[in-house]
Design goal:
The chain has about 120 residues and is α+β, with helices and mostly antiparallel strands. About 45% of the residues lie in helices and about 15% in strands.
Length: about 120
């Protein structure tokens, strides 16, 4: 896609789904190929995704919806130790697990500050 542009506007927070959708669209992935890859990295999770075009105020882009079992839809209410267990059971390399944990812990700290709670 030589004419594609990924615009990242972080004016009111970072939207991981929009960012992920943009990257998947730029690399010409489909819901099927991206979902299969995700399941190969995290074999213990029942997860998929739906990638589709979206339009906001006349601007086209992409959106992705992560498909999870009913008990984890919405905010899922996973705790940091749940995420640690997911990373530990994944097929990510040791370096990728370490970076993912670092990002996750930073998000946990930021969310705690925003909500006035402890980690």
């Amino acid at each position: 896609m030589p004419d594609s542009i990924l615009a990242i506007r972080i004016h009111a927070g970072f939207n991981a789904s929009s960012f992920t959708a943009g990257l998947l669209a730029l690399t010409e992935q489909t819901s099927g190929t991206a979902g299969a890859y995700l399941r190969s990295l995290f074999p213990g999770l029942d997860i998929g995704l739906e990638l589709k075009p979206a339009w906001v105020r006349g601007i086209s882009g992409w959106t992705v919806k992560f498909l999870t079992p009913a008990e984890t839809t919405g905010h899922g209410h996973r705790h940091p130790e749940d995420i640690e267990a997911i990373y530990a059971a994944s097929r990510l390399s040791a370096g990728a697990r370490q970076r993912a944990r670092a990002v996750w812990h930073e998000l946990v700290r930021a969310e705690a500050r925003v909500h006035g709670t402890s980690e």
